[in-house]
Design a protein that fits this description.
Two copies of one chain form a homodimer.
Chain A: E1 15-20, H1 24-35, E2 40-46, H2 49-59, E3 63-66, H3 77-88, E4 93-98, H4 103-111, E5 116-119, H5 124-135, E6 140-141, H6 143-155, H7 164-174, H8 179-186, H9 190-204, H10 209-218
Parallel strand pairs in A: 1-2, 1-3, 3-4, 4-5, 5-6
The structure holds a DNA duplex.
DNA sequence: GGGGTGCCCGTCCGATCGGGTAGGTGCGGG
DNA sequence: CCCGCACCTACCCGATCGGACGGGCACCCC
């Protein structure tokens, strides 16, 4: 561990990689795995989005392995970082690496320019092969991610996007409040609440509020 | 990596450890971290509950680091394994290691004899210290886990346990079916469905079916 | 045998939901 | 300037829910 890493880029032919993950255990695991590959070199690590911005700006690696769930903060922190990287550093290939498969997240990550999406429970050879794929500027999605995308394309054309108001109504719905009480909380009439509830159910493809809550919960909206 | 590990037990004074986790990355990370500690030695690994049974039976380590989420199968696989280990191998200290904090899981793990509960995003020193704590046969819970337990003690005396029937009703509830239709699906009368729904709501502390679905979703029941 | 629990069923009723109709406002982009 | 969109409101109505009574049967454990 006494190697110097002063140079921003790895040697010729080597892929420089930065790890962004708040789990020390995972970072250590990735390091161990990647250090065994002759053509790869982990040149930096970051544990938060803020730290990642600094590190990436300075090191400009070929690849960044990005965990979308960063810390306990906002769930979109990792996604926003993903957008930023692809916008500001087109040369950096973003390979998203998460713990489990979340349909909404896969799609969001793709929209935001991730070149690959890998679940952490892949074996090590699949991971390094995904990295090489992204390094060739191709897309790397494991079979499960791919099926998620395929499914979403044929089932959900676009719009599960709830408006701000609907989101607020939805959150109160989940706590078991009636339309009338939700209206009182949000200072709107019961009629309006019903209006929003119906729109929520329509957008989520649910036929009752209970199902809407279930779908929203699955999609991570609440 | 060419060391032999033929002997089931580590040398005198060393803690023998077995890793049970389906993520290769995590296992590798744990190995790297623990191998740096002079008094610890990773003597085996397992990726599934079945594999773990064999490995633990043969190696009988001092400590097992157990990820509760094993594979894509049943969510209770890890918990059941936890029970088995504490029942069949009282000498093995179970330190549960999961990706994120799930209130219900922490409690379940404790009930089933886990001596410690650590979230994967702790830093490495906290992890090794937790291992040493468990090795001394003390309890090791990080502050967040401890607060979950404290909270559950004062808010939920015991019984979120749903009966099999209630579980079935709950799952259909989440799909937005009415009491009548749920009854048709389960070949019971609508009245009986209402009976179960009310019991579900009571057990989950919910006042409507929507809230019940939300709570159940949070608790990982559906 | 009593007591606990899971499971099953019924009737009654007021409150609420789901869905339809009809409108209005404000704000931004083509 | 008009269109779309988010947001708000009102009336109506049948279906459903949530909760309150009442009952039953089978099981296991003390």
């Amino acid at each position: 561990m006494n190697r110097q890493a002063t140079r921003p880029r790895a040697e010729q032919g080597q892929l420089s990689i930065v790890l962004v993950d708040d789990h020390a255990i995972v970072r250590q695991g990735l390091r161990s795995i990647l250090d065994r590959e002759d053509d790869m070199r982990v040149v930096g690590e970051a544990t938060t989005a803020a730290e990642a911005r600094v590190v990436l700006d300075r090191l400009r690696p070929d690849i960044v392995l990005l965990d979308l769930k960063l810390g306990t903060g906002s769930d979109t922190e990792g996604l926003e970082l993903c957008s930023e990287i692809t916008a500001n550093h087109p040369g950096i290939g973003v390979l998203v690496l998460t713990t489990f498969l979340d349909d909404a997240y896969v799609l969001e990550a793709v929209h935001r320019g991730a070149k690959g999406y890998v679940i952490k429970d892949v074996d090590t050879s699949a991971l390094v092969s995904a990295i090489r794929t992204v390094a060739r500027d191709e897309s790397a999605f494991d079979s499960r991610s791919a099926s998620v995308m395929a499914r979403s394309i044929r089932t959900a054309p676009d719009e599960p996007a709830l408006t701000e108001r609907e989101q607020g109504v939805l959150e109160l719905l989940a706590t078991g409040l009636s339309n009338r009480v939700v209206g009182e909380r949000l200072f709107i009439s019961e009629t309006t609440v019903k209006f929003h509830v119906r729109n929520i159910m329509r957008k989520l493809g649910a036929s009752t509020r209970a199902e809407a809550v279930y779908e929203a919960s699955k999609m991570g909206l609440i």
